Amino acid sequence: MPLFDGPVWTRIARRADAPGGLTVMATRFAAGAGTAWHHHDSDQTLVLSAGRGAVEYADGRALALSPGDVVTVAAGERHRHLAGADGMTHLSVTTLGDTHLDP
Q1: Residue 37 maps to which CATH number?
Q2: Which pTM value belongs to this model?
């Protein structure tokens, strides 16, 4: 199962190479694109830089995102990222750890 659903472009600006290090990745989602349900070994902070979108959580919560919004998803929390009608771009910041796809 792929992580992304729909046209998505990523660029890793920095990759954590030791515990406590940061991975910073820019991700641009086309209109309506998103991620599969997943969770991370560490907290993930998202900074929306363009467009509109949302983070949906497995418990039914959805957090709408606009440019400048910052949200932190707790380690282990099942979620997905969804772009709005005009797409979205965000920076993702995590520490060393894996991303796990969820059914």
Answers
A1: 2.60.120.10
A2: 0.91
